[in-house]
Amino acid sequence: MPAAGPAGLAWVVFIEATGQGHFTASPAATAWLLFAGPATVIPLALFAWAARRMPLSSMGFLQFLAPTIVFVIGALQGEALGSLRIASFAFIWVGAAVFALGAVLKVRRASDTAETIVAPEPGLLDDPAEDRMEALGENPPPVR
Length: 144
What we know:
The chain crosses the membrane at residues 29-49, 61-78, 84-105. By secondary structure, the chain is mostly helical. The protein is 69% helix and 0% strand.
């Protein structure tokens, strides 16, 4: 149990003993409260698992999706949208677009650079041990 576990358990026992708790209110309430833990932990654990396997730049960009979805749902449901909210939303997405454009251009520049093959300087890849052996008058071992 984590460090806060015993304190939390003591608090639940105290609340239930004073009649202010909800665990013993009804079997349905108890079931819902017990289900709330796994219903919270499972999505968070899956998110953490997936986040470790994604590039941080992709993860950061995807973090814009949830507020955008909430914004669109609010607009469709008739939420009051003042000009300040719309302007702030637009600035956030312009920033995200600039970031995405910069990332795309960086990848393109990297791929252009990777396609350019530079020939090594003559003698650069030669084995220096062979040069020393030749200087001493010895024959290098044959390459297998």
